[in-house]
Amino acid sequence: MSVELKERTVRYVAKSVPAMDGAGVRLKRAFGNLQGINLDPFLLLDDIHSDDPKDTIAGFPMHPHRGIETVSYLLDGKFEHRDSLGNHGVINSGEIQWMTAGSGIIHEEMPMQYNGSVRGFQLWVNLPGSHKMMQPKYQDIKRSKIKEASIDNSSTIKVLAGSFGNTSGPVEDIISRPTYLDIHIDPESEFKYVVPDNHTVMAYIIGGVAYFDSKRDKLITEDTLVVFDKGDEIKISTGNKDTRFLLMAGEPINEPVAWHGPIVMNTRKELIDAFKDLENGDFIKHDYHV
Ligand code: FE
Questions:
Q1: 20 to 30 A from 141, CA-CA: which of 1, 177, 215, 286?
Q2: How many domains does the structure of the chain reveal?
Q3: CA-to-CA separations, 124 to 8, 51, 190, in angstroms, rounded
Q4: Do the domain assignments include residue 108?
Q5: What's the rounded Cα separation, in Å, for the pair 227 and 252?
Q6: Alpha carbon of 95 to ligand 1 centroid (Å)
Q7: Strands 200-208 and 243-250, how do they pair?
Q8: What is the CATH number of the domain that holds 116?
Q9: Which residues contact 110 (CB under 8 A, 6 or more apart)?
């Protein structure tokens, strides 16, 4: 008996939008509080990409996070990180930092050009109410820990989190168990991937062009977000150019979202409490060290 797989067609396509954040960092926001498009459990994806130090030098000075996880993935340059408890680290090219903010961290993040450019991504993943106040933690992943899968010698898949076939990613014990892949497809090739029907699936194109469904009506270009519809299998194919994209998939948490800036809770009361804690100097609930 064979089971027919339903293709996940493209439901939404949008170019990332230039935005300014932190103390004046110019970035592109792939998504973040999109009206009418539910990307649960994902909240936000920023694309920081510049050859001009003026665009990023101001960085993201001390700011709080609560109720979420933030995932920084660097392709070029460096990202220096320091928190109010003295934890400090540098994320280098090809590395990931998966930060579970949980009950609260206050930190600064400083993107730095290296050999002239910086390119990195920050993804925010929501935490369920049961874990919003968990102890914060960091997972710093070196380049050598990121495993690569390949298909038919035409696609290479870096597994950042979750798994692809028999290849598992290095990030462990993530509450919402998302899949996060960095995929390259050669020209004139096809990539298929089955994701459980109820999961949210989307891609953000970081290089080249590709078709994101089997109709092949429209080539989708760099700096574009593609959200897939319900179904089983995504089918991505290339023409005479290659492509590279980030693929994110995860099971929705399906809880109310009360979101203000870098704090994402379930209720307005929890949000108000978080800002009161900040004012009272009582934001840090756990002593955590790396
Ligand atoms: Fe931050």
A1: 286
A2: 1
A3: 24, 24, 29
A4: yes
A5: 14
A6: 17
A7: antiparallel
A8: 2.60.120.10
A9: 59, 60, 79, 80, 81
Q: Can you give the residue range of the structural domain that contains 157?
A: 10-280
Residue 59 belongs to some domain of the structure: yes
Q: Is 57 inside a domain boundary?
A: yes
Distance 166 CA to ligand 1 centre (A): 32
The verdict on residue 246 lying in a domain is yes
Q: How confident is the model at residue 97 (pLDDT cuts 50, 70, 90)?
A: very high
Res 195 pLDDT > 60:
yes
Residue 264 and residue 66: Cα distance in Å, rounded? Answer: 6
Please tell me the predicted confidence (pLDDT) of residue 102: 96
